Amino acid sequence: MQTGLNSRKTKIIVTLGKASSSIEALVKLLQAGIDAVRITTRFLQGEEREKVLKNLREAEIIVGRNVCVILSLREGDIRIGNANAGCQLSLSVGDEIRIVTSKYSGNEPNTIMCNNPAFPNMVRPGDKLLVEFGKAIFTVTEIEGLGSFTESFGSYNEIPSVIIEQDSGLERYKRSKPKTLKGQKVVHCRAENECILENGEPLNFLNTSNFVCNTVNNELEDIRLLEWAGPMDIDIIIYKQVRDKEDFDDLLSFATPPNVKRFVGIQTKETAENPKVYLKSSDGCSIGRGILGVETSHSAVCKLQKSLVSLCNKMGMPVFISTQVLESMVFNDKPSRAEVVDACCAVLDGVDALMLTGETAYGHYPELAVRALHKICVEAEQYVNYAEQRRLVYESLATPLSPMNGICYFAAEAVEKVASQAIVCLTRSGKTAKAISRFKPSCMVVAITDSIKTLKFLRVVRGVYPIFTDTNPGKDNENVAIGLCVKHEIVKSGDVVVFVGNKKDSFIEGTTTSFRIITVN
C-alpha cells in the first residue's frame, strides 16, 4: 500500500479504460492511493462498464478500501478512432486522412471512424479540427459524397421521370424532390502535426461558433446512462457540456438514483462566465480544461481555473480539475516538469481532486501515474498557506455564522494554536466533515461515519480521511473515534486532537454544537 495515504489532502480520481479494467490493474491502482474512479462512455461501452464495476468491487474487497464511483454524462458529442478498431494510428505532418461515419470495410490507409453521422454536414474545406483538445490538428481539404447527385445527373429538370408503372399494377406519382443517392460520405483532411491517435478521441472545431451550433444533444444517451446507473451504486454524476441554464435544468429533471451527488461540468463559455448560476443547483463542479480551452482560449483557462477553484472553496463545494494533468505519462514513465508545476499550482490554489484521464484509461503506466501524482500532491501541500485560505473563506461568509459553521471555523483555527495532529468528527451525512474542510485546517479531518455512501463521497473532499464503523459509539464517542484514529495510524499516544461533536450520539444530524481539545493516551 502507498505510504502517506492518511496524510495526503488532495484527492486523486482515475478514469477507467482498457489499461485499468482488470482486477489486477484495479488492485494496483487502489494500493497506489486512488480515491475515486470515473466511468465514461468514451472508454467503456455497454457491458464493459458493468464488467469493470464488478472487477472494482472485487478489487476493493482484496485491498480493503472503498472508493467513490463517478459517472460522466455527455462525454464528447463527436469522437473518432482508427477504422481498424483496437489499433493506434500514427500520423505524420502532411498525411492525408479520410474520416468516415458509417461501417467501414475497406483497406485505405489513415481511415478514421467518426461516431456522429451528421459530421460531414458540419464541416467545410478549410476548417480546422482539434483532436484531444489540440493533441492533433486536422485541416479539412474536401468533403466527398455531398452534392454528388447533381454532379452525376445534371439539374433536376433534366431527370426523366416515370409517372405510372404498369408492371405492378400500382400507380406511382412523380417525385416532388430528387431521390438522394446512397453512398459513403468521406471528409478528407490533412494532418498538421505528428501524433498517435487512440480510439474514442474527442473531436472539436477550432472555430468556437461552429462547435456550439453543431453540438449534438445526446439526451437519449443521457437517459440510458442514468437508467443504467440506478442499480450500479454510482456516487457522483457529472453533467458535462451544459449549454445554458435551461439545458442544465432539463438534465437535472431526469431521475437519478437516491443519495447521488450531482456535479456540473464547467466546460463551456456559458458555465465558466456564470458559474454561480449552475453551482447553486449542484453539489460540486468539475473543470474540464479541454473543451474550456476550445470555447475560450488557452490563456483564459488559467485565470478561469483559479477563479473557479477559489469560488468553490468559498462556497464549500468540492471542485475537480481534469484534462491533461500528467498527459505525457500516457507514453512515458515520468511526468514533464511543466505538468508537475501545473499540478502543484492546482494544489496550492485549493483544488479538492485532480483527475487522470488518458494516463489511466489507455496509458502505458497507469499505476506510475497515480504514484507520481500522489508524490506531487504531498510535496505541494507542504507550502499551502492554510491560514490565508481560511481567512478568505471566512471573509466571504455572512456574519453571524451559523452555530455549525462557527464551531467548525474555530476548530480549524485551534489546530495551529495547539499543534493538533487531527480534527476528529462523527458524521452520518458528511456535512460536518465538509464544513470543517471548507475552513482549510492544516491537519487531516478524520470523519467517522456509519454510512458507506457518505464515506465514498468524502473520499473526494479535500483533507478528509473517512473511516467506516458499523457500531454506534453512543456517549463514549470520543474514545471510540480516537481509538479508530490510532488504529489507522493517523495519531499516536501523546498527540493532540480536536474533537468536534458533543456528548450525545453525534451521528445524528444537527448535533455539532461544541469542540474539545484532547491529548491521546
TrEMBL record:
GO MF annotation: an example: pyruvate kinase activity
Residue ranges of the TM segments: none
Superkingdom of this protein's organism: Eukaryota
Pfam families, per database record: PK, PK_C
InterPro entries: Pyr_Knase (IPR001697), Pyrv/PenolPyrv_kinase-like_dom (IPR015813), Pyrv_kinase-like_dom_sf (IPR040442), Pyrv_Knase-like_insert_dom_sf (IPR011037), Pyrv_Knase_brl (IPR015793), Pyrv_Knase_C (IPR015795), Pyrv_Knase_C_sf (IPR036918), Pyrv_Knase_insert_dom_sf (IPR015806)
Keyword Kinase: yes
Alphabetically ordered keywords of this record: ATP-binding, Glycolysis, Kinase, Magnesium, Metal-binding, Nucleotide-binding, Pyruvate, Transferase
Domain Pyruvate kinase barrel: 8-144, 182-370
Domain Pyruvate kinase C-terminal: 407-517
Pathway assigned in UniProt: Carbohydrate degradation; glycolysis; pyruvate from D-glyceraldehyde 3-phosphate: step 5/5
Family from the record: Belongs to the pyruvate kinase family.
Cited PANTHER family: PYRUVATE KINASE (PTHR11817)
Protein name: pyruvate kinase
